[in-house]
Structures are given as structure tokens and as C-alpha cells.
Amino acid sequence: MNRKFDIVQSCCVPLPMENIDTDQIIPARFLKATSRDGFGENLFRDWRYDADGAPVADFPLNNPAYSGCILVAGKNFGCGSSREHAAWAIADYGFRVVISSFFADIHKNNELNNFVLPVVVSPGFLAELFASIEANPATEVKVDLPAQTVTNLATGRSESFEINPYKKQCLTEGLDDIGYLLAHKSDIEAWESNKSTL
Asked: What is the Cβ-side half-sphere exposure of residue 54, based on CA atoms within 13 angstroms?
């Protein structure tokens, strides 16, 4: 879903595990669908549910203490296969932001293409954030895309994050790659017209 992105302030769901791969984010057996809808119900399926399909009580997504549209995950999030379905599942579940100290490149771009903002922070900031959420699950984080800052509102500490300027523009305007081209249709047509006269 194309959604404009500005400032997000929310509680967080912590997932303090490193090397979370795309097969854990969305297991391969759920990749048959071609629509982006419905993947959220199987996000982290093999961790959220036991073999009988019952929710695993201590998994963070099943813990009622945790809520919000920000997922905080350990280092090397989204490693493994390049399946875009992993980003579909994260977006369909309702997460708007994923915070980690490192993302696999392909998964990071897949998140951006699906209007989920991957925010890379320092290991120290990530550790502090996990500690704040553990101490108080109601801890909120403010992610300011225009300013490119992320703030732990429990401590007041902020860090800056990097983002490709083109992807930042697409997020702030709610445009995918095709929408971006269509928004510049008149400029493209003018350039083509001028080129043909040369």
C-alpha cells in the first residue's frame, strides 16, 4: 500500500535476535500467493505458532504488552534469500518502521519499495532501545523521516540515519517507482520532444 511517510511515533515490538533471515520472516511454504495481501498473518509463522497452530505465548508478537508499528530487531535483519514476500509480510502486518543495526541490502531495498522504513542505528543505540523496551513496554520511539532522526523517547537520545534521497522522496510523497515516473510525465515528454529536434 502506497502511504505517505512523515513522522511516526509509536510503541515498539522487540525482537532481540541477530541474523533473522527471510525464511523466518515468511516461510517458503507461504510464497504461493501473488497478491501482497494476507502475508501478515504468517509473519514469523514458525516462531509465533507451535506445530499444532497454537500461539507461542512468550513470542513478542503474541505478547499483549508489546504493540505499535515499529519493529526493533537484532543485527543482520533480512539476510538469506531475496524474497520480496518478507517485506510484504512486514508491511501487511502493519509495521511502518524496522530498526536494526544492520540490514541485508536486498531486504532493505524491498522494505523501502513496500513503504516500510528501515532505520539503521548504532549497536549502542540499539542496545539502549532494547533495554528501554524491556524496562517499560510502553516506551515510544519517534522516527522523523524529513529530519532523518530516530529518538528513544524514554531517554531522549537521538541518532541520525541515512536514506537514499530518491527513496526518501518516494516515501514522503507516497510514490512507488511507477508513480514517480508518472508524476514527472510532462518533464519526460518535454525532454523527449526537445531531444527529437536535435
From this structure: 3
CA distance 22 to 17: 13
Measure the CA–CA gap between 92 and 36, rounded to whole angstroms.
8
Residue from 143, 157, 18 nearest 77 by CA: 18
Cell numbers placing 16: 532481540
Q: Give the model confidence (pLDDT) of 9-42 as tens digits.
A: 999 999 999 999 999 999 988 887 666 778 999 9
Q: What does pTM read for this prediction?
A: 0.89
Strands 7-15, 70-73: pairing is parallel
What is the full DSSP assignment across 10-33? Answer: EEEEEE--S--BHHHHS-GGG---
How many CB atoms within 10 Å of residue 162? 9
- Cβ–Cβ < 8 Å for 2, 174: yes
